[in-house]
Amino acid sequence: MFAWVGVPPWQWAVFIGCILFFLALDLGVFHRRAHVVGFREALAWTSVWVTLSLAFGFFIAPRMVEGWTHKETIEYLTGYLVELSLSMDNVFVIAMIFAYFRVPPQYQHRVLFWGILGALIMRGLMIAAGTALVQRFLWTLYVFGAFLVVTGIKMLFSREEGVHPERNPVIRAAQRLFPVAPYFDGQRFFTHHQGRRAITPLMLVLLMVETTDLIFAVDSIPAIFGITTKPFIVFTSNVFAILGLRSLYFVLANLIACFRYLKTGLSVVLVFIGVKMLLDPHGHPRHWWQFEMPTTVALCVVAGIITLSITASLLHTWWERRRGGKMPEPAGSASEPPAFPSG
Q1: Rounded to an integer, what distance in angstroms lies between the CA atom of residue 53 and that of residue 77?
Q2: Is a pLDDT exceeding 80 seen at residue 290?
Q3: The whole model's pTM is what?
Q4: What is the rounded (10 degree) CA torsion for 160, 260, 117, 98?
Q5: Who contacts 266 (Cβ-Cβ below 8 Å, separation ≥6)?
Q6: Which of 10, 28, 220, 290 has its CA 20 to 30 A from that of 107?
């Protein structure tokens, strides 16, 4: 299922082992004690993960994987940029969840750590299933393309609905299985309440983050297949994008209101990749309406769309401040009540 020229199983094991080691080092050493992650610390960790991601694509993978060429490097960079960009929208939703549940800042890193560990497992399974599906039925790439076009258009015109735990089937199932304590118990996910073992609101937040990432993965996994169908590139680009999500959250959490056009840019990216998948012959003889877009062109287009949306957002923020206008509050920070449902 994971077979790709030059990537034997032991190299998959080495890569996954290194990732698990870094995660254990993160939680067991650098963040063993709960503390508020400041902007400088988050920026430093973001720089570390971005540097590791680029080093893997430019230096480690070409020496690690037999047959890795400049083409694979461009595919990896494009996939990483797409996944990292789409994860920014995930950051904004996570900020809404934290604000809704009023999660103390010192406990947010723990939620993100376990949330991202779960996300890596879920995405690994989805990539494995998607790869097997594409290898067996190549026409599913056209289905993915149409799905991305529809999703991008819906995202472009959809409104933010806020956080609604009562609509989440996973939250409802957890409430049926366990009583929910109406208070945080430090950074614990389980506690004792009224003589019974109960889950804390922090567990509800973790479940919300996990299900949110699952929803986003439904968009992002087909998007990466629009760049490449090589499992090792799909998996590694996803992993590095997700690993950088924790520190990226703490960098962007207080700047969410400044990125008002980013969602529009991400919508255009999804539509672009979907159209690219629909027009690509995918190794078959071309029809008159099909053409194969070089990955370098796709990389430039995606980077241009994201850069333009961020630049437009920052310029709008600067103009609003110059006019003395009131800046919008971060999503979810308005007077929404904390949700501590009891089961």
Answers
A1: 9
A2: no
A3: 0.84
A4: -60
A5: 85, 86, 88, 89, 155, 306, 309
A6: 220
